Amino acid sequence: MKKTVKMNKIDLIDRDSGLEYNISLIEKYIQDVLISLDITDWEFSLLFSKDEYIAELNRDFRKKDWPTDVLTFCEADNDESWGTVENDSPYYAGDIIISIETLLKNSDYFGVDPVEELKRLIIHGILHLKGMDHDTNDSDEGMLLLQEDILTRFGEYKF
Questions:
Q1: 44 in a domain, yes or no?
Q2: When you count CB atoms within 10 A of the terminal residue's CB, does the N or C end of the chain come out lower?
Q3: Domain count for the chain
C-alpha cells in the first residue's frame, strides 16, 4: 500500500514589503525544506514586511524598540503540544514575519546574496516553529549549525 504524505499549507503574505522574488518558487523551497525536516501536515503563515511593521511587533512582543530581520510566533506553548494534530486537521505551527528592508541591510553588511539571506531567514523561522531555540547568535549553536547545513543543502534554489 502506498503511504499518503500530507502536504503543508503555507500562507505567503506580502505586506507591501518590496519583495521582488517569485512567490511560487519561495513556496516550493519552503515545502522542500519542510519535507527534509520530516514536517508534513503543518500550516503556518509567512509574512513579508517593511521595517516599520516588524519594529512595532518587536516592540510590542519582545520589548525591543527596533526592527529585526525575522520574528517567529509559535503556536505551541510547551513541548508536549508541539506538532499535535487533532481531528486529522493540519497542525497550526504559527507565524513567521520577515522584514525585507532589514534582510537587504544584513545581506549588504555580511556580503551575502539577498536570496541566500532570505533562505537563511526562512529556515531560521521554520526551526523556531519546530521548537528549536538559540541563546546567542554564535555560529556554533546547535540550531544555527542546523540552519547553515540546510542552507547549504538547498543552496541551488533561486527565486
A1: yes
A2: N
A3: 1
Instruction: Please give the biggest Cα pair distance in the chain.
Output: 54
**45 to each of 48, 73, 112, 118, 153, how far by Cα in Å?**
10, 10, 26, 15, 23
Determine, yes or no, domain membership for 48: yes
Residue 22: inside a domain, yes or no? yes
Q: Please give the residue range of the domain that contains residue 147.
A: 9-153
Q: How far does CA 86 lie from the centroid of its chain? A: 23
Angle at 59 between CA 23 and CA 150, to 5 degrees: 40
pTM above threshold 0.85: yes
Report residue 86 as a C-alpha cell: 487533532
Phi and psi at residue 128, to the nearest 5°: -65, -45
According to DSSP, the residues that pair with 97 across neighbouring strands are 47, 71
Does residue 3 belong to any structural domain of this protein? no
Dump pLDDT digits (tens) for 86-134: 556 789 999 999 999 999 999 999 999 999 999 999 999 999 999 998 8
